[in-house]
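Inverse folding, one chain.
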């Protein structure tokens, strides 16, 4: 029996977090919600063996540990989970930084549910190909 991919969302904006949750649950994904990068990092560290997080969707700007900080922390610790960044600040420098860090994709705010699901499918396929 295969289980649905599990996606962790790190988003400080309540409405965006809820909207992502609803879109992903309706599509059949398991969803873990966090409100910032530090909380996301702790959830990732606490995951039981056999229940991996398959993808992280993190906001770029959050209080405490932001999206880039979360990416750096996971890379420093050798935790290879594909990451998508959601942002309302999609300037070229940010996109360059995300690409340089191996970010799977990015999503602009406000997001279109079908586009989010397509990018998730692509990121999960890419991760499978690498594994």
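Residues assigned per position:
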């Amino acid at each position: 029996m295969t289980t649905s991919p599990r996606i962790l969302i790190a988003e400080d904006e309540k409405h965006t977090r809820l909207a992502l949750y609803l879109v992903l649950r309706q599509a059949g994904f398991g969803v873990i919600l966090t409100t910032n990068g530090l909380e996301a990092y702790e959830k990732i560290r606490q995951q039981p063996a056999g229940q991996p997080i398959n993808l992280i969707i993190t906001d770029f700007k959050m209080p405490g540990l932001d999206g880039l900080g979360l990416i750096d922390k996971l890379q420093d610790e050798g935790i290879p989970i594909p990451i998508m960044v959601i942002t309302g600040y999609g300037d070229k420098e940010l996109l360059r930084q995300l690409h340089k860090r191996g970010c799977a994709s990015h999503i602009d705010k406000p997001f279109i549910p079908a586009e989010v699901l397509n990018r998730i499918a692509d990121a999960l396929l890419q991760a499978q190909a690498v594994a």
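The chain has one domain: 6-130. The chain is about 45% helix and 20% strand.
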